[in-house]
Amino acid sequence: MLETATAEPDVSGVIAEFDHACLGHDDHVVFPDLTLHISQGDRIALLGRSGVGKSTLLDALRTRLGDQGAWCPQANALVPTLSAYHNIYMGRLAHFSRWQNLTNLLRPNRACWQEISGLADMLGLDGLLRRQVDQLSGGQQQRVAIARALYQKRPVFIGDEPVASVDPRQGARLLELINTRHQTCVVALHQRELALAHFDRIIGLDEGRIIIDAPASELTSHDLDVLYVTD
Amino acid sequence: MSRTDAPAGWFSWLRGDNVGARLLRLTLIMLAIMLVLLPLADLSITTRDPWKELWRMLQGMILPDITATESPLHALLLTIAFALWGVMLGIVLGFPLALIFMRSRLVRTLCAFVRAIHEIFWALLFLQVFGLSAITALAAIALPYAATFAKVYAEILAQIDRGPSQTLSPRTDRLSRFFYTELPLAWQRLSGYTRYRFECALRASVLLGFVGLPTLGYYLESAFRQGRYHEGGALLWAFYLLIALLPWWAHRRLLVPWLVGTAFLLGPWPSVNPTLLWQFVSHDIWPQPLLEGDFAALPQWFGRLPDLLPAIGNTLLLGLMSTVGSLLVCLLAWPLVSRHFGNRTTRTMGRGALIVMRSTPELLLAFILLLLTGPSLLPAWIALSLHNGALIAFLAARHADEVTPGLPGIRGINLYSHELLPRIYPGILALLFYRAEVIMRETALLGMLGVVTLGFQIDSSFEYLMFDQAVALLMVTAVINMAVDVLSRRLRPDALPERRHQPRPAPVGDSV
């Protein structure tokens, strides 16, 4: 695997760091002065109102981590005309030869099929692998997107609201699964209960700044209210 | 509203800086220019008794004679064969070009040039070398279609959702990336567009009959020209049925059987004389003075060209008139097929009428009208406006059907003017300006019927075997069409939905 310098844990175990960084897209600055260190083994939940810059931060992090990060984007970004199986397989396109990729489109590779069915069973997608993705429900599509990220088998999981369209109980199960398969994860969420229950570190964003960065054990749901005050 | 606000005056809407005012100004300016120039257009009716002729034609349509044509089935199948294989070859040539289209200015210019010349003119050109053969027919369709496919496929591929591609590892090879994200994401639109072009190719294939290839158009032309309207009626019905039944006979699953089956029909294959071909390419189509290096004689050569200015003027004028005419036809016609108006019966009838207008090849429509009015701009104007107006009306109605009116219980003209038209008008104008390029190409084409546009001069140059002149005129036509294309692209409102590129995280400033 290609290893980028920033993604390699250094002596202190930091895998990505922003030092007074200025982040944004196009000409629009979202974070004028961002300082953030992410260490190996961190399980981070990213909280904040919508439009506050969670996606921008995750995108920047994903670019930094390169091939160390398994990316599960917002709104899934699946290919609607391909089957669930092929969408999950896409997680490792770069890993296989182009000829295998092409033949796999016509006739699924047996070993890959077995591995992906195992993954699908865990995510409650059994029996749906042959289905074209646009025929799946929103929750099922989201699980396909998670499966694709898990199939990448990379150390850091980066998810942008990966459990937004499933019910809380299933959301909890999915986050557990993500946690068992990744040492480090950074996940944007909007359910604060899930954040407090399944993550070690909470980062709260507001107006281009980090206003909360604390261990989950030191926070209560009430402490997070400040993130959602509209004023 | 505050008390001091005066009520808006008559022209205040026009002064605004919003999209609505801009489009309204654009429309009115176009209309005004057309009205000012209209007296210059020859709109005379020269036939003595057009109504009697029209009545005879209608009789022919009502009582078609299916036994009159010798081998109608062969003509029908040959029409399909040319269209199908022409489109196939167009895809084979055009798809690879689409992949480099956005990166190569050379390819873009070349495609714009090839596209700017109508299928029939390509046919006239190839006819000189390959005669009345399958090569002429296939090349005449495949070449301009390849250029169109290159452009449209490239645009479709550029508009796909970038999200899935961004989830891939940056090290993913190009081929896998293309087959797993780009192609499946674009597939539906690619195949939808190709299907639409196949319908166009069927019309083009019919038109090839006008230059002598034995497709439906050949028999149609001779039947109508000689006043055998019962035979003409039968052939016309055959063509409408062909178009109306497209979804059944041109099903995707039947593609391979059709390709194999029609392959045997293609013909005749010419015996090409390489010497003559070389003579044509290297000598015949070039101005004599240029070949001899006698540049002093060039002005004289140009002087011998037929009077270009009236032809160019007529071409541009007819183009403008037909663009405005199409807009008017569309504005009147789209409610006929929209779910917001009328009942099931009126919609069915409206749809029938629009399908007839849309699927009749423009040249054929103009040809029939010309028999009624005699050669002037009038039949050409009506034909182009009806054909293109009906085409845009369909798309406008589909667009309007997606709109749910905000106010319940609003109906009729109020619904049209307040709820629907303001929402779909930008889309209509965008389609109209897309179409302007096609209208211009067809304008030149109608010259073949004796309307004095550029096409008329091209046709007669070919007839007198003055190939150097014909090719020069084709160049002029192409340049004008390309200019109109650029102009209409400038004017076009960006109302067509284009997916914004996903904002990429990019470091702003230099602190990263």
Automatic annotation (TrEMBL), chain A:
Residues 16-229 form the ABC transporter domain. Keywords: ATP-binding, Hydrolase, Nucleotide-binding. It holds the Pfam family ABC_tran. It comes from the Bacteria. SMART domains: AAA. Its EC number is 3.6.3.27. GO terms for molecular function: ATP binding; ATP hydrolysis activity; transmembrane transporter activity. Gene3D superfamilies: P-loop containing nucleotide triphosphate hydrolases. One of its GO terms (cellular component) is plasma membrane. PROSITE patterns: ABC_TRANSPORTER_1, ABC_TRANSPORTER_2. InterPro entries: AAA+_ATPase (IPR003593), ABC_transporter-like_ATP-bd (IPR003439), ABC_transporter-like_CS (IPR017871), ABC_transpr_LolD-like (IPR015854), P-loop_NTPase (IPR027417). The keyword ATP-binding applies. PANTHER family: ABC TRANSPORTER RELATED (PTHR24220:SF685), IMPORT ATP-BINDING PROTEIN (PTHR24220). This is Phosphate-import ATP-binding protein PhnC. The gene is phnC.
UniProtKB/TrEMBL annotation, chain B:
Keywords: Cell membrane, Membrane, Transmembrane, Transmembrane helix, Transport. InterPro entries: MetI-like, MetI-like_sf. It is a multi-pass membrane protein. The chain crosses the membrane at residues 23-41, 73-99, 120-143, 201-220, 232-250, 311-334. GO terms for cellular component: plasma membrane. One of its GO terms (biological process) is transmembrane transport. It is found in: Cell membrane. Residues 76-247 form the ABC transmembrane type-1 domain. Coiled coil: none annotated. This is Phosphate-import permease protein PhnE. The lineage of its organism: Bacteria, Pseudomonadati, Pseudomonadota, Gammaproteobacteria, Oceanospirillales. The gene is phnE.
